[in-house]
Write a structure and sequence with these properties.
Helix content is 81%, strand content 0%. The chain is mainly alpha-helical. It has a single domain, classed as Na+/H+ antiporter like fold. Helix 2 packs antiparallel against helix 14 and helix 5 packs antiparallel against helix 6. The longest helix has 34 residues. This is Bile acid transporter. It comes from Alysiella crassa. Its main location: membrane. InterPro entries: BilAc:Na_symport/Acr3, Bilac:Na_transpt, Na+/solute_symporter_sf. It holds the Pfam family SBF.
Length: 318
């Protein structure tokens, strides 16, 4: 089992590379990932959220009880900055309805499941990061459909109630099941081994989701590649800056501000990709935009975490 745990650590370390590789393979040979659609995609999403739930135990929920103000500030920042920034960028750059839809969908999703690792790399407040990710995920079945209805419901036909029920099933239920199993079976050696390889399973699952989108819509990427990447980058980097300074405005210390930056800026774009395929199956631009965001957020979040660590090292040397 130690071999698989080592493989898991390496896959987690090179998450962005694995996702990019899957996208490239899918565009070259679509049949490789064309099976990731429909019910299969729903199961893959559920597996990712189950893995996240398996990392949550009693100590994590204790954090929520001990630090309600921090978590409240983080949740408000998460679910105001990114959705509103997405629609502002979309309108400001005069993006197509499809690209605006994809950008708002990414902005309205909860924090990324890999953000805790990025906060660790950044020497942030990891406990705060776990708390923010947990709360944003719990709130997602309500907040994501609500923001989508408010921001794009007038221009794109969507089923807000259906999205709410779907997200309860695919996000909240697997997290609750995984977390419950973690608290009940935490002392079991076999469960610890399974939990150790779940990050790798999540990485491969993300890769499959992105690969599935690339297999169907990859040929459309070049149609709006430059403006799409520019919009995704502006949204993500803007989230980092606004998240950091929201923490500063609330008097947070450096570690918390770094965590705020990462938790606000890094979104669960894999979930956004799955939601796009499920609820907007004919909107190719939205699907491609969310898939590209999945890659971008994985790369930029890791880079930002390492930049923070490099800055600390540089100051220490000086």
């Amino acid at each position: 089992m130690s071999f698989f745990i080592q493989i898991s650590q390496q896959l987690t370390r090179f998450t962005a590379g694995v996702i990019i590789l899957a996208a490239v393979i899918a565009m070259i040979e679509p049949a490789t990932f064309s099976w990731v659609k429909g019910d299969v995609q729903v199961l893959v999403l559920g597996l990712i959220m189950l893995g996240m739930g398996m990392t949550l135990g009693k100590d994590d929920y204790r954090i929520l009880a001990q630090r309600p103000l921090d978590i409240f500030i983080g949740a408000v920042a998460q679910y105001t900055i990114m959705p509103l920034l997405a629609i502002a960028i979309g309108k400001g750059l005069n993006l197509s309805d499809g690209l605006i839809l994809g950008l708002v969908l990414v902005g309205s999703c909860p924090g990324g499941v890999s953000s805790n690792i990025m906060s660790f790399l950044a020497k942030g407040d990891v406990a705060f990061s776990v708390g923010m990710t947990t709360v944003s995920t719990i709130l997602a079945p309500v907040m994501t459909p609500l923001w989508m209805t408010v921001l794009v419901g007038q221009t794109v036909e969507m089923d807000g109630w259906g999205m709410f029920k779907f997200m309860l099933l695919v996000t909240l239920l697997p997290v609750v099941l995984g977390s419950g199993a973690n608290m009940l079976l935490d002392k079991k050696a076999w469960f610890k081994d399974v939990r150790s390889v779940m990050p790798a399973v999540a990485v491969l699952a993300f890769a499959c989701i992105v690969g599935g989108v690339a297999a169907v819509h990859g040929h459309r990427f070049m149609e709006s590649a430059v403006v799409m990447v520019a919009a995704i980058a502006a949204h993500n980097i803007g989230g980092y800056f606004l998240g950091y300074y929201a923490g500063a405005l609330c008097g947070m210390n450096t570690a918390k501000k770094r965590t705020m930056a990462i938790e606000v800026g890094v979104q669960n774009a894999g979930l956004a990709t799955g939601l796009s395929a499920k609820f907007f199956p004919t909107n190719a631009e939205s699907a491609v935009a969310t898939a590209v965001a999945c890659i971008w957020h994985s790369v930029s979040g890791t880079v930002l975490g390492n930049l923070f660590a490099w800055w600390d090292k540089r100051k220490g040397q000086n």
